[in-house]
Design a protein that fits this description.
By secondary structure, this protein is of the alpha+beta class. Helix content is about 35%, strand content about 15%.
């Protein structure tokens, strides 16, 4: 059974918990987001999904842990869970409310630029729309798999994903069209990072850069790839921290090649990061290190 997005004009006003309870009452599985608008990460007991989570992580709802773990999979319509003491601590720190589109039986086409919105208006059937900071969410009735980067600044959020609640929006939900399903069948665009020009010499006792040893650099890149691919939550933060660590250890001597960077970007995109988010994370990490 599917549920339409509840049209409630006061959903964004008041305390985040009150908004979440109203949305949950309308059939929308909700969860809190941190102040940086990312989901709350797993607690130590659930780190790397050690608790087992939900079966195959394909259905919303918390594991036996009472905290809002597992990001989208923690989304719930149960008011008792939403109002429980462990969740109250999260609501007090929350910066926004999110929901699990697939759990509500809908798909969100996230259009993150004016150009993307213009494309949708000429390429997609009209449906329920919600204004966002940089574009619009187009919401269709019917779930599908989630894919980021199906076009430039266009992500599909449905099953195994979350979308930030940005208000009731306008218009009537249309059935999920084949043109949107077809977008998911196209492989996301892979970004080839532009040359970074990092040439600051690395200190070395014998004058030979230790990164010239293939095993040393390969081990660092492999560990970074593993760290990203094993992330069970807070993927955005994990990608940024991993990029930061790689640049800090290997980025100042010129031994870090475009091939190495592409491997990191590929690992991040395999976890749902869009090419634009990869570039942003890389740029922010370089800036933080003064590169």
């Amino acid at each position: 059974m599917t549920h339409a997005i509840p049209i409630r004009r006061d959903a964004r006003t008041g305390h985040h918990l009150n908004a979440a309870l109203r949305l949950a009452a309308g059939g929308l599985p909700v969860l809190p987001l941190r102040a940086d608008k990312g989901p709350f990460g797993n607690c130590p007991a659930c780190e790397r999904n050690a608790c087992g989570g939900r079966p195959n992580m394909k259905t919303p709802g918390p594991c036996l842990c009472p905290l809002p773990c597992h990001a989208w999979a923690a989304a719930t319509t149960d008011p008792a869970v939403l109002s429980s003491a462990p969740w109250m601590a999260a609501w007090r720190r929350a910066g926004a409310v999110a929901y699990h589109p697939g759990g509500a039986g809908v798909t969100v086409v996230d259009l993150d630029s004016t150009a993307a919105v213009d494309w949708a208006r000429t390429s997609l059937p009209p449906t329920h729309t919600v204004a966002t900071t940089r574009g619009e969410h187009w919401v269709y009735r019917g779930p599908m798999r989630s894919v980021n980067g199906v076009r430039e600044n266009v992500d599909i959020k449905s099953l195994m994903s979350y979308a930030r609640w940005r208000g009731p929006g306008t218009g009537t939900l249309a059935e999920l069209p084949e043109v949107v399903r077809a977008l998911a069948e196209k492989a996301p665009t892979t970004v080839r990072p532009t040359p970074r020009g990092i040439t600051v010499p690395a200190p070395s006792r014998d004058g030979e850069c230790r990164h010239r040893t293939p095993a040393y650099l390969e081990r660092g890149i492999s560990m970074a790839e593993q760290r990203i691919t094993e992330a069970a939550s807070a993927v955005h933060a994990t990608v940024y921290r991993t990029f930061l660590a790689v640049l800090s250890a290997h980025g100042r001597c010129g031994c870090l090649t475009e091939t190495h960077i592409s491997r990191l970007f590929t690992a991040a995109q395999s976890k749902g990061e869009s090419p634009r988010h990869c570039e942003d994370a890389w740029t922010n990490a370089r800036t933080a290190l003064g590169m």
